[in-house]
Write a structure and sequence with these properties.
By secondary structure, the chain is mainly alpha-helical. The chain has helices at 2-18, 24-38, 43-59, 62-77, 80-92, 97-108, 114-132, 136-153, 158-166, 171-196, 221-241, 252-260, 263-277, 283-314, 319-323, 330-348, 351-362, 366-369, 374-387, 397-405, 410-438. It is built from 21 helices and no strands.
């Protein structure tokens, strides 16, 4: 009966999102309420569990999501994203410019949504294509796959951030291991772009969407990198100093890194570096940026909280004993997390919703799978992320951004972009399994 209930509510989430275009906040909350009643919980218990699940999930990451979104908006509005892209292009060189575009997308997608990142940087594709003679669609696929890899693996992107909270994984480890997984995944997208891009043709019958013109920026490269790099280093250092052997001791140095490496403080430091990018911009204009950032963050925070509430209801039943899973099957657990996320992503289109819903389902099973250490939980988050990028097709808004801004029809986009995300998802789960055996 419990498994039947789980299947029904997951199906409801998919149908409500895809067919009836219901916002995930409502579909996840209704799924949580319906699950509670179908599982025999009292109305009072349902509301208490939902409230506690919502609050607990957001207690550690609500501000982190908000601060991360502010950093992304400032990078976008000040033209710093193009500064980052041009800096990477300069280092890697025009001969390897598709790789430079891929890595630029990867870096920019850590704080900026991949849809926005593609729109901002798509103007570079044709410009560099004319300089190098390499087909523009090689750059388009390289950029799309680079942006997508960080989007599902590297906090403070909301998806992996929410998954870490729901599965109670260490954010520093998720970030560190996420980079180890995401970089090869991004590179696999680059090789796919080189392989498939030359055989793809732009569509002469459709009009390409207007690309954003490059915003002139006085921001220097090292300034553009600081809001990204500093928080990552601080969070990684917190995990390092808290290692059981305490490599830096337990004195003032430990306390300093432990404080500044907490995600809220680390991202707040990043926000102040981001503020410095817009110091020449009028205050009125920057107020609009903040409103836009918090509008974006609010939606993600609510979806994340609703996912936490759904997960809290699912924790009231012992799914592991019902499925009769064997303890200690860590590889099996990672593969199950990957498959569930893949099904949800393919069915309803949103990577973030797939990550949050899968995390809620998998979290109660981690102990049964033998995924109990901090490293194991971090890898479980990344397995879910790998599934949530497999595959991006016609029900995904990102698919349409890539196709329209690259001036390609649906068939061509399915060949170039969708198959690329399939390759990336498989590469991602293989990297997660490799790390499981090595770490």
């Amino acid at each position: 009966m419990e498994l039947f209930v789980l299947g029904v509510v997951v199906l409801f989430i998919i149908v409500a999102t895809v067919k009836f275009k219901m916002h995930p906040v409502f579909s996840l909350t209704l799924a949580a309420v319906a699950s509670g009643f179908l599982l025999g919980l009292t109305p009072q218990s349902i509301m208490t569990t939902i409230g506690e699940g919502f609050g607990k999930t957001l207690s550690g990451i609500g501000l982190v999501i908000a601060f991360g979104t502010v950093i992304g908006i400032y990078l976008e509005k000040t033209g710093s994203t193009q500064v980052l892209a041009n800096s990477i292009l300069k280092v890697i060189g025009l001969k390897r410019s598709p790789l430079a575009i891929n890595l630029a997308g990867f870096v920019i997608s850590i704080p900026v949504y991949c849809d926005s990142g593609f729109i901002i940087l798509s103007s570079l594709n044709k410009a560099i294509s004319k300089k190098t003679g390499i087909p523009a669609l090689v750059f388009a696929i390289a950029l799309a796959t680079g942006l997508y890899s960080a989007h599902v693996f590297v906090p403070p992107t909301p998806g992996p951030l929410a998954a870490a909270a729901i599965m109670e994984a260490d954010l520093g480890l998720v970030m560190t291991l996420g980079l180890l997984v995401a970089i090869p995944v991004s590179i696999s997208g680059y090789f796919w772009a080189r392989f498939i891009g030359k055989s793809l043709k732009e569509d002469d019958t459709t009009e390409a969407m207007e690309e954003k013109e490059e915003v002139p920026s006085s921001v220097k490269p090292f300034q553009a990198f600081l809001p990204l790099v500093v928080p990552i280093i601080l969070i990684a250092m917190k995990s390092f100093v808290n290692y059981p052997t305490h490599p830096l001791g337990e004195g003032w140095l430990f306390m300093m890194f432990d404080f500044f490496g907490s995600p809220i403080i680390a991202l707040l430091v990043g926000v102040f570096f981001a503020f410095s990018l817009g110091r020449k911009t009028p205050s009125k204009e920057k107020q609009g940026w903040m409103a836009e950032a918090f509008k974006q963050a609010g939606a993600i925070v609510l979806i994340t909280g609703a996912g936490g509430a759904f997960g809290a209801i699912l924790r009231t039943i012992d799914i592991a004993s019902i499925i009769d899973l064997e303890s200690g099957s860590g590889v099996g657990g990672l593969l199950i997390a990957f498959v569930i996320a893949t099904v949800l992503k393919t069915a309803q289109g949103s990577s973030t919703v797939a990550i949050i819903t899968t995390s809620a389902i998998v979290a109660p099973l981690l102990e049964t799978f033998g995924l109990v250490s901090l490293t194991d939980k971090a890898l479980a988050v990344l397995a879910v992320g790998a599934g949530a990028m497999t595959v991006s097709h016609i029900n995904d808004s990102y698919f349409w951004v890539v196709s329209q801004f690259s001036n390609i029809n649906v068939k061509t986009a399915l060949r170039g972009h969708t198959l690329g995300t399939l390759l990336q998802g498989i590469t991602g789960i293989l990297m997660v399994l490799l790390l499981y055996f090595l770490v």
